[in-house]
Amino acid sequence: MNQELWTSVDHYFEGALIKPDDALRHAEKTALDEQIPPISVSPALGKFLHLMVKISGAQRILEIGTLAGYSTLWMAKALPGQGKIITLEKNRKCAQIAQLNIDYADYGEKIELMLGTATDSLKTLIAQNTAPFDLIFIDADKENNTKYLELCLQLSRKGTVIIADNIVRNADILDNKTTDKSTKGVIEFNARLAREKNISAVALQTVGIKGYDGFAVILVEDNDARQ
Ligand code: SAH
Ligand code: DHB
Ligand code: MG
Predict the structure, then answer these.
(1) pLDDT truncated to tens, each residue of the chain (227 aa)?
(2) Cβ(143) to ligand 1 under 6 A?
(3) Beta-carbon neighbour count of residue 41 at 10 Å?
(4) Distance of CA 139 from the midpoint of ligand 2 (Å)
(5) In which element (H, E) is residue 115 found?
(6) pTM for this prediction
(7) How close is the Cα of 146 to the center of ligand 2, in Å?
(8) Does the Cβ of 90 fall within 6 Å of ligand 1?
(9) Which atom of ligand 1 is nearest to the CA of 94?
(10) Does ligand 1 come within 6 angstroms of the Cβ of 88?
(11) Handedness of CA 111, 159, 215, 1 (dihedral sign)
């Protein structure tokens, strides 16, 4: 198996089955034109998030790590009329481009972008007694993944679905002597998932245009983290 083959298979499914719309293609193009790093979810993972929103019936979504808004738009497209997404981004340039992409898609009402570090924004949301989210997508700096999980549990209820991206990282997570901060963050996060009592979770490996990686799907079973 190789990257070329994974890319070909992703392309085989993309046009016929996954079908990113004009707003999604626009978001991809502006990210490329503005030299935003090519680290958004693949079209296939975007469509998976979209389906998860529909399957779970989510109306309140939280996203940590907006980049150019590609994953945000996939999820927004699945929301019912009154649904809302709050997406957190610390990089001003990314936030500006994401906002343009959100406006182009005409989702200004549905998507609220919070500029700032995710930890600060999550603490603000907790302090504001924000109603629990139905679905949460964790996809920012991997170093802080465990902290994000802890804060997200405080913004969850029984039945909240949390999806965390990039938890395999080309199998780097098997190297417990790694000095890479992101990989260390993911290793700590995975260990925390395994220990956490109030959740039920699975880790799925993926290959495709973004290489070899994976994501976790976490169901909050019971939540005594929220006071
Ligand atoms: N979810 C996006 C990709 C996100 S990439 C998509 O699939 O389309 C990760 C993003 O997290 C980057 O835009 C980066 O600027 C942002 N980020 C990194 N550290 C952060 C932090 N501490 N707080 C908030 N955002 C952060
Ligand atoms: C990185 C972040 C991501 O969310 C991703 O999907 C791939 C790479 C990164 O920071 O390198
Ligand atoms: Mg990611």
Answers:
(1) 699 999 999 999 999 999 999 999 999 999 999 999 999 999 999 999 999 999 999 999 999 999 999 999 999 999 999 999 999 999 999 999 999 999 999 999 999 999 999 999 999 999 999 999 999 999 999 999 999 999 999 999 999 999 999 999 999 999 999 999 999 999 999 999 999 999 999 999 999 999 999 999 999 998 665 54
(2) no
(3) 23
(4) 7
(5) strand 111-115
(6) 0.97
(7) 16
(8) yes
(9) 13
(10) yes
(11) negative
